[in-house]
Design goal:
By secondary structure, the chain is α+β, with helices and mostly antiparallel strands. The chain has a domain of 91 residues: Roll (Flavocytochrome B2, Chain A, domain 1), CATH 3.10.120.10. The protein contains seven helices and five strands. It starts with 12 loop residues before the first helix and ends with a helix. The structure holds protoporphyrin IX containing FE. Protoporphyrin IX containing FE binds next to helix 3, helix 4 and helix 5. Pfam families: Cyt-b5. Belongs to the cytochrome b5 family. It is a single-pass membrane protein.
């Protein structure tokens, strides 16, 4: 009754074509481990909490070896995004993922926000701190003299 293709036993094959390898999922590395891989023998970078081993890609990187080495052992998320990498570059990058940064270490790599830059401003008007009381004192003195002389 069902005129389907003979021998179509491809169940499950669909998922694999979308994402070739995600065996890194659930593999966590500590920040210290990431930081140790900052040399040409082993270069790891962090992009969006995922750890990429780009050691073998250094020489092939169209943007140059140097930019990747500079980011070795650190968080390259901002630089990666600033470049505006193509979809192809992003797809390619997935093949270098080896794991994720341990959740406990994620906030350590977060850039400190600018909220703490609310410093004391009172210094800017320091001269008014004494000029106003001095003028007030002068007025009081003059009034005292004026009334006491009458
Ligand atoms: C696994 C990580 C990375 C992969 C797979 C990758 C791949 C690529 C590819 C395929 C290109 C060619 C242009 C494109 O298709 O967008 C490219 C260009 C470039 N990449 Fe990367 N990249 C990676 C990480 C980085 C990082 C971390 C930086 C910055 C520190 C960077 C900086 C650049 C620059 C400056 C260019 C040249 C852009 C241009 O000439 O317009 N890349 N990259």
């Amino acid at each position: 009754m069902c005129p389907g293709r003979p021998g179509s036993a491809e169940a499950g094959a669909m998922e694999e074509t979308e994402k070739p390898s995600e065996s890194w999922r659930g593999r966590y590395y500590r920040l210290e481990e990431l930081q140790q891989h900052n040399h040409s023998q082993s270069t790891w970078i962090l992009v969006h909490h995922r750890i990429y081993d780009v050691t073998k890609f250094l020489e092939e990187h169209p943007g140059g070896e140097e930019v990747l080495r500079e980011q070795g052992g650190g968080d390259a998320t901002e630089s990666f995004e600033d470049v505006g990498h193509s979809t192809d570059a992003r797809t390619l990058s997935e093949s270098f993922i080896i794991g994720e940064l341990h959740p406990d270490d994620r906030e350590k790599v977060q850039k400190p926000t600018d909220t703490l830059i609310t410093t004391v401003q009172s210094n800017s008007s320091s001269w008014t701190n004494w000029v106003i009381p001095a003028i007030a004192a002068l007025i009081v003195a003059l009034m005292y003299r004026f009334y006491s002389s009458e």
